[in-house]
Amino acid sequence: MAEQKESDDLSDFLDRKGAEKVLFEIGAGAKRYNEIDEAVRLSTRTLAKRLDEGIELGLWRVETFDEHPSEVVQEERVSHGSGDHESSWVDRREDRNHSGNDRTASRYTITDRGRRVMQRMQELGLTDAIVKARTWETEVEELTGDLVDWVEKNEI
Asked: % helix / strand / coil in the chain, to the nearest 5?
């Protein structure tokens, strides 16, 4: 009975505005809120609701990560005797955040349950349809801009 309830809840979620687009974005790779927001074109309130609902349904989770991680740096060595220069990659970590403050950020990452739904989206062709719809939306915006330019130039 509990499995049926979860399935019903997921069905209801996927039927809501933009849910499939949010799942598609997170399923394509871990994303920050602003990256998802830019891609899905939902109101701030709707996006926040979909993100919370997806967490509750176990489709994705929020991960916190270091925004300025240590990195491997290239080190130059000079041989004092011969004057030769040698460059090599050294596993010496340098903190890019020199202020001493830890800077963390959050991103949404897909779960196993979310991956299962994404796989079915791909099988159905829904992921391809989402990509096509975005392409068409972009084309409509560009052509609308051309129309506006034409109207302004021709004083219609």
From this structure: 55, 20, 25
